[in-house]
Amino acid sequence: MTRLPLLPSALVLGALVLLGCLASMLAGALSLPMGDSLLSIVDKLFGGSTSRLALHEQAVIWELRLPRTLLAVLVGAMLAQCGAVMQGLFRNPLADPGIIGVSSGAAVGAVLAIYFSPVSASWWTVPIASFAAGFACSVLIYRLAQVSTGTSVLVLLLAGIAVSALAGSLIGLISYIADDSRLRDLVLWQMGSLAAADPTRVWLALVVAVVLALRFQNRAVALNALLLGESEARHLGIDVESLKRELIVLVALGVGLAVACSGVIGFVGLVVPHIIRSLNGPDHTSLLPLAALAGALLLLLADVLSRVVIQPAELPVGLVTALLGAPFFIVLLLQQKERW
Amino acid sequence: MLVLERVGVSHGGFVLQLDSWQTASGQFHALLGRNGAGKSTLLKLLAGELSHRGHIRLHGVDLSDWHPLERARHLAVMPQASRLDFGFTAAEVVALGATPLSLNWRQIRREVQRTMEFVQCSELADQSFVQLSGGEKQRVQLARCLLQLSQAEQTPLLLLDEPTSAQDLGQQHALLSRIRGLCRQSGYGVVAVLHDLNHALRYANIASLLDAGRLAGQACPFELLTTDIVERYWNYSAERVLSAGGNAALL
Description:
The complex is a heterodimer.
Chain A: H1 6-26, H2 34-46, H3 55-89, H4 102-116, H5 122-145, E1 146-147, E2 150-151, H6 153-177, H7 180-191, H8 199-218, H9 220-227, H10 230-235, H11 240-262, H12 268-280, H13 284-308, H14 317-336
Antiparallel strand pairs in A: 1-2
Helix pairs in contact in A: 1-3, 1-13, 3-8, 3-11, 3-12, 3-13, 4-5, 4-6, 4-7, 4-11, 5-6, 5-11, 8-11, 12-13, 13-14
Chain B: E1 2-11, E2 14-23, E3 28-32, H1 39-46, E4 53-58, E5 61-62, H2 68-74, E6 75-78, H3 90-95, H4 105-118, H5 134-148, E7 157-161, H6 169-186, E8 189-193, H7 197-203, E9 206-211, E10 214-219, H8 221-224, H9 227-234, E11 240-242, E12 248-250
Parallel strand pairs in B: 3-8, 3-9, 6-7, 7-8
Antiparallel strand pairs in B: 1-2, 1-4, 4-5, 9-10, 11-12
Helix pairs in contact in B: 4-5
């Protein structure tokens, strides 16, 4: 089996992420001359005033597109890493926070917070509520799916359907009683969108993404051992219970925050780790950083796509990732169905 | 090296009771008995997987008092089957044995090569582990266990759950004679659940016979496995023969 080495892969992905950032800064409903937009970026990075963009045009780039671009990078990286970790934790390549219902659960928390808390407090109540709800769902689904030989895919997916259905009905109920302005927010929330990006969300996502990336990397070797089975990991000296507890909390934190910042964006956590595993192998020490880069890239591209396909309107980015990811998931199921 | 004192365990409705049991460095200790006699439960108990009454001491220290990483460097368990669902190569699976060790990647690579050569599975190194046959997987897992024990400061103990259940005839004997070599030359302690009594006769130097969760006998296999015992505990009237080389076999 051939494996692409870590460093060159990371460099290529890193360069692609930078290009993706550039594309994201240049794309949008308001069409700005590309040359001047590029010059505006150069001006900002190196000082100078060569760009001929008007002030309000500069504001579009720096106050709307920059936070949105950074949020896409951070949320994409978090979702891909959470997907990879969740698959390791469940020892199952099909576990994805979206498919098994954790994202929908987190969305219920977010929606409740949007509905019940005053707008001024929503910047902290929404992330906390979606984390708490995502955490409760993770624990519930993990407990449900445990069988003597590990986790059952069948129960995992069925639990995902059940939790998503329950979440859907709760969100439906709140949407039904919500007023018109909140209704639109709630509907957009479920489809996932990066349009609400602002500095607060970016800083929050940055802090959580860095904490997550460091903790996940610290646990990468233990996660590798866990893939052999819980007993085997224990025999290799891993404290399996504390590992599982920590990872479930971290994944719920990542998914909860991603949902709070940008709504439900599915399939990034499924598609990205799968592609990286097939190219670079399943070793978490390389999978996790590469998945973060590739997740950032995928969400950047999906967001650019969502902004340009029906200009001047926008598609919710969650629809784009679902359109790309759902067929991918079906192909995976077809490939692996013989094993169950 | 491993001593059990007044140990009792209840696992899934099954009760195992051992007043005194031990195994020493350099011993290949076979656990024998019919299905449901308690062999696998005892192996799980020795691996520290079951909560129990009494004491299990490895090198004089209670199993639960060992630091988990330190214990992992001295006690490895080779599972009978593997449930790995991810696309590791065989060499990467062996390298997982380095989890409790402090080795850099160069040392790990060298140790992976050495242990895979020892278990005669070097040719599998780059193949996908999931696609290997059951026997090949067992050999790779054994190499992983040996890597895990490669930094032990005191004599390591290797626990094997039917290590040859998926091997062909030639591989069964090659594997068991290598394991016996580890005991004789490196002083490893080995405790293995064996179903084939002829393997016990040929390779083990001590055997414990379990029946209904109790120790029914312990002796060197040559003395323990008489035709009477085989008849009583396995309901099979066997014939015992001696080869020209002095090896006993049950037919």
